[in-house]
Specification:
Length: about 400
Amino acid sequence: MRRAVVFLLALGAAVGLGLASACAGGAAPAGPAAAATAPVSEVAPEAAAPAARLPAGQDLYRPPASLVEAGPAGSLIWYQGIVSPVAGSRAWRVVYRSRGLEGEPVAVSGLLIRPGGPAPAGGFPVVSWAIGTPGIADVCAPSRYPPVVPRLARLLRAGFAVVATDGQGLGTRGPSHYLIGESEAHALLDAARAAGGIPGLPVARRVGLWGYSSGGHGVLAAAEAAAEYAPELEILGTAAVSPVVDVERFIAPVDDHPGFTFITVGAWAKVHGIDTRSIFTPRAQERVPRLRTECALTLAFDWPLWRRVDLLRHDLRTTSPWRELMADERAGEDPVEGPLLVIHGLHDSIVVPGPSLSLVRRQCRAGVAVTWSPIAGEDHFIADTTGAQVVDWLAARAAGVPASSTCA
């Protein structure tokens, strides 16, 4: 348990406490080869109001509706300079435009970090990072705190600009769309598009996707949606580390980790307009207000001796609409765009590895170049220890090296 707590503090499950780590890593690979392509900022399908520094007295997380509606998905609204944890680089908090489940314009917040020095011809390639479960209260938005990206210095030395979305409704208006694939996909892809809105920051249309745990669910959804939602982007590759592939397997058993079930059900109830009293027991319902004020460190693990019957009135697997919602959120059902790297600890008891292996087999059958990297003896908390492997894999894709495949 001590290892779990230390890792969550470092990787953002306790972002509400303001704790973070600068993940420097070892020697970085050579920077990716520049692509002869226009920057993302030049390909927006319609005119947008120009991005601006955060005006004095304004709340970055609450742009007026008129500004949110004043441009296409993937255009930047406001940016605010912050101190970067990596010497020589620059960082900003940003809020950008995206699209909700009904196609409505929404504002999404996040972080953007660029390497020091001039951009290569064609602009910096981008890595769009998706963090693991931070919580669903606004205070848990990762961008409110120093950047928490594994091996961030290594990514920057490899020549990538890095965007880290908070996801729809986390920090900004509206409920958090935690583990809702369509919303995750939009937020991740539009973050990559929006990176080009910072004046003087040319970025390419070449994007790598990297996500951990629930963020792995998000990057898989983004890689599935990219060809249709953001066809101008070239997906260099997708790295999913300890990913939540099958939400049912993640939350329906309940007994081992009731906190993640509580967070997911609470988030989905808010998004889909479901009364939590219809599914939570009275004892669990007493804890619902905590979803609005606490982050994942306490919410995920503060459930001593709770079992399914203590948390839920009904089995999610046999109860509508929960059965259907979980089926809708199974990631990687369709072929992803670009090559795929899947890393999973074989002793992971929080997100069991079986669905990741099933994902690999599905994607292999679809003709995707998949690298399956199971790690014997490792548990869930491997985002930092596998970070160098992911950065090197993404850098090779950006340099034009074809991905190898472990598909039989």
